[in-house]
Amino acid sequence: MNNKAIGVFDSGVGGLTVFTEIRNKLPNENIIYIGDTKNFPYGNKTKSEVIQYAIENTEILISKGVKIIIIACGTATSQAIDILKQKYEIPIIGIIEPTVEYVKNKKIDKIGVIATEGTIKSGAWERSLKNKIENIEVINKACPMLATIAEEGKAKSIEGKKIIKEYMRPFKENHVNKIILGCTHYPIYEDIIKQELGYEVELINTGKTVSNYLKEYLKKYNIQNTEDRKLEKIFLTKPEEKFKEIAKNIMKVDITINFL
Ligand code: DGL
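Above: inputs. Below: predicted complex with D-glutamic acid.
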């Protein structure tokens, strides 16, 4: 039993797709979120920059007394999780491992992965999938513009739809029907992706795999909060005009924004 908060971070609004799944699936848990809007986007930054941002976010969350850290960002998971795990004693969960477990349990043998440029270049998804699942075929596609368009609140615009059409081409041509949304901003595009593909497809939302994994983890180590939730706080590192509106679309509730 442990009533300390769960610490969650991302480069911006995307990690709220993970935050939302956690707050719904674990209704007693206190949660503190950091959206590192000052350094957004992470997807086109160097590995050492991403590591630096991940360290800063982790240290802020630790200073706020969290019991566990969730990296609600594909880019930071792919490039910084190993370093963070070496550096800190606090448990740290990224979005890749829980999702690979899910794919493995589902016995999927051909999968698409869409993510930021930095994530795809790191090869982390493909490596992790192939390490755990024999003979799995992985089709990767970097989608450099998607997080930025979502962060600007333009995901459902003509621009958003046009770019989805282009990014979905390799999947549509090969009729890939399981795709990992390897960046936490991408669930915002779920409907548009399904529309563009036009066939039955499972889009794997990492928020769902992470929140299931987290629930089991808290139970296994007996660190669930058994009292009612008292704290739910969202911090940004820089004001961002559209954040509140996009957050409401994702979370279906009004939020208060705090600044670091
Ligand atoms: N939400 C992020 C991810 O999952 C980052 C997008 C970005 O900052 O470029 O990769």
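The CA atoms of residues 100 and 129 lie 6 Å apart.
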